[in-house]
Amino acid sequence: MPARRKHKVLVLFDSAGTPPDDQDFSRELKTDDWATEAHVIDALTKLGHEVRTIGVYEDPGLIISEVKAHPPDVVFNLAEHFNARSAYDRNVAGLLEMLDLPYTGSGPTGLTLCKHKGMAKEILAYHHIRVPDSAVFPPGGAIRRPKRLAFPLFIKPVAEEASYGIAQDSFVENDQAFEERVRFIHERMNQAALAEEYIEGRELYVSILGNERLNVFPLREVIFAEVPEGQPRFSTFKAKWDDAYRKKWGIQNIFAEGVGSEMNERIADICKKAYRVLRVRGYGRIDLRVTPAGEIVILEANPNPNLEREDEFAQSAMKAGLSYEALIQRILRLAFQ
Predict the structure, then answer these.
(1) pLDDT per residue over 217-268, tens digit each?
(2) Rounded to two decimals, what is the model's pTM?
(3) DSSP of 69-94, one letter per residue?
(4) Parts of the chain belonging to CATH 3.40.50.20
(5) Burial of 161 by CB count in 10 Å (0-12 exposed, 13-18 middle, 19+ buried)?
(6) Which residue spans of the chain are classified as CATH 3.30.1490?
(7) CA–CA distance from 295 to each of 3, 79, 202, 208 (Å)?
(8) For residue 30, what is the DSSP state?
(9) Per-residue pLDDT for 196 more than 90?
(10) What is the DSSP string of 231-287?
(11) Is pLDDT larger for residue 4 or for residue 337?
(12) How far is CA 118 from CA 77, 138, 301, in A?
């Protein structure tokens, strides 16, 4: 159904390198890697909005020139990197704010807090939200495990997303493996490493829409059907993105069953609190684990999660009764708040 009010919408996204002068991404938008951009553009077009697109890699001047030449009413911000640095997504949002443009998703504060996983955990813990016990190890510093961190531990880069930098070797059970994995992140990924308590339990994804009033969509769960009992279960980069690997280990993302209304309500309340204290705006996803004892442990918060039709957020919204186009329209409307 077309939107009641039509807007001039600039869809802003990453390009894989310096974008072509003609900004023609028609070939890329037909590939699986560009599904999110293609789906969002298609939905906005079906809603009747006037859509322009711009891909950016390392030149912020492209954004400035575009909005001066074709002033949009709102920017649909799909940028996840700048100059191949995922931490710079906050700077793209900051530029849009300096240009006084409404834009979708979280602002610089929310992106900064959530992207630094160690800082996010400190803030959540301050607000009495249970997170894994953890410590951050910056490059160049001593790699010495604090006594309070007991094995097994989980080691990951402090400022990445989509499980980038997470592999089977991220799960460590002794000091030698601990030091090797921390050093690997320092040397190969050129960033701090986060060491955290490994939490056993069901892994759930909680999609939330809104700014002040928050809607929590049906829970999603990742299951590891072919991983032997007693073995650690967690989402490596391959577990998320390699279809053959997922099939081998029976890894599936499904709607969570048997959670119970009381637990569902507890999860919703905790996740909404986490969403607010981390300054997430527009839409976000909270990843957590529920232990066998029923404890809810927040793993991380994801501002501006993937909006591909088949991904967690859109699937949860559709399960709640929102069509994909209605979801995109709601996100767009929230940008004006």
Answers:
(1) 999 999 998 888 878 888 888 877 788 888 988 999 999 999 999 999 999 9
(2) 0.93
(3) HS--SEEEE----BTTBGGGHHHHHH
(4) 8-104
(5) buried
(6) 133-197
(7) 42, 35, 10, 21
(8) G
(9) yes
(10) S-----HHHHH-HHHHHHTTEEEEE--S--HHHHHHHHHHHHHHHHHTT--EEEEEE
(11) 337
(12) 25, 11, 12
Helix, coil or strand: residue 60:
coil
Q: How far apart are CA 271 and CA 269, in angstroms?
A: 6
> For 200-335, which CATH class?
alpha beta
The sign of the CA dihedral 309, 26, 79, 244 is positive
Q: Encode pLDDT of 310-321 as tens digits.
A: 999 999 999 999
Residue 240 phi/psi, 5-degree rounding, is -90, -35
Q: Encoding tokens for residue 209? A: 């829409």
Map tokens 């705006």 to a residue: 281
Q: What is the CATH code for 133-197? A: 3.30.1490
For residues 197 and 204, is the Cβ–Cβ distance under 8 A? no
CATH 3.30.470.20 domain range(s) in the chain: 200-335
C-alpha–C-alpha distance, residues 5 and 82, integer Å:
32
Q: Which residue has the tokens 């981390």?
A: 278
Q: Is the pLDDT of residue 91 over 90?
A: yes
Instruction: Say which DSSP state 169 is in.
Output: G
Give Cβ neighbours of residue 24 (< 8 Å, ≥ 6 apart).
none
CATH topology of domain 8-104: Rossmann fold (3.40.50)
